[in-house]
Design brief:
Blueprint lengths: L18 E2 L2 H10 L3 E6 L5 E6 L1 E4 L2 E7 L3 H5 L5 E15 L7 E15 L3 H15 L12 H6 E7 L2 E7 L17 E4 L34 E2 L3 E5 L5 H8 L16 H13 L3 E8 L5 E11 L4 E9 L7 H17 L4 E7 L3 H10 L2 E11 L5 E10 L3 H12 L1
Helix pairs in contact: 5-6, 7-9
Amino acid sequence: METYLKTDRTTPLRYPDRASYDVDVVNAILDEALVCHVGFAGPDGAPRVLPTLHVRVGDTLYLHGSTGSRTGLASRHGDLPVCVTVTLIDGLVFGRSQFHHSANYRSVVAHGSARLVTDPDEKSRAFRALVNKAALGRADDSRAPTPKELAQTAVLALKLDEVSAKQRGGQVVDEPSDYELPYWAGYVPLTVTRGQPVPDAGVTVPVPAYLQPTRSPWLSPLIRQGRHVTLEPMDPSHAAGLFVALDDPEVWAHMTAPRPMSVADMSAYIEGALADPGRAALVQRDAGTGEIVGTTSLYLADPVNRTIAIGHTALGRKWWRTGINTETKLILMTRAFDELGAVRVEWFTDILNERSQAALERLGARREGVLRAHKRRPDGTWRDTVVYGMTGAQWPSVAGRFGATLR
């Protein structure tokens, strides 16, 4: 096992048994942490502690800053003695006594002298590493810094020699005499998760795959090309096209969401759909013209019981009674039954939506019941929802029949 140097400065005075000098342990914490704090003595001798971004490349820790920042200014006259720390909070620990409240954490402390990176090639490599740490692949998907921008940026390099990690995990460490106290004790896990990306104004390209939030494999991004329809993951850049295709009161007559009255409203609708972790929202395009024609979704995925639902479907009136809706359903059922191994696919529709019910019955789905007062409509009334289902046993005959019809 490779270890870092153990010194007086890297040996904690409290709970030394929690310390680790294992290179893999230290590196994993440094790589997961997004922000570090750099402590150093300023020109006046007073202490400074500044937050900044960092990235580890091998046994070197690169610290990002500005040439006008205190770290940048302080390092102009030679190597800068620093103490760099990172902390990851994994949970809050609640003891029966206030004294034994604590936190589960992983931390690293690194001591040494940081040098100012002056070599343009090394600085460029550090820049790429910093950007790729934010999202792997981003450096190739963004403009590289210009010589002027590089000159405005200070990058400090710290050789990782005198480093230690300290960790706490698990349950409360209460006094045995407190065990009978009538207070809840335990810990609450904490995690950092990425949310749905929000595009800047004027962005017209889709959200890159490396920025998409992690979802169930059953709801992973889906791209399919059919004879009549192309399916692709819904994206904020689709707002204008979807608004034009679906700007019809009849299209929204039985939807659970209110009709968008502007592109801004459609953007809000898309934002809500993408923020739902239990829904894989898709956009439908005419396979011949590439024109956006509607939207549909896979949702209510249950990998344990192997079921999934198809819904949130809105198709522009111009494309009603074409092969687009039927082929979309077949593509999604192929995904469910043949690729995911589902044993059941479900649909839920408003009891007043007779056109949708007729289409599902033509498809071969069976009406299984009615959920009374199931959902509130946009106008405030309560809808009864008709449940349709199809099982894996039905699927082969349905696939053959409608596949032949589409061909």
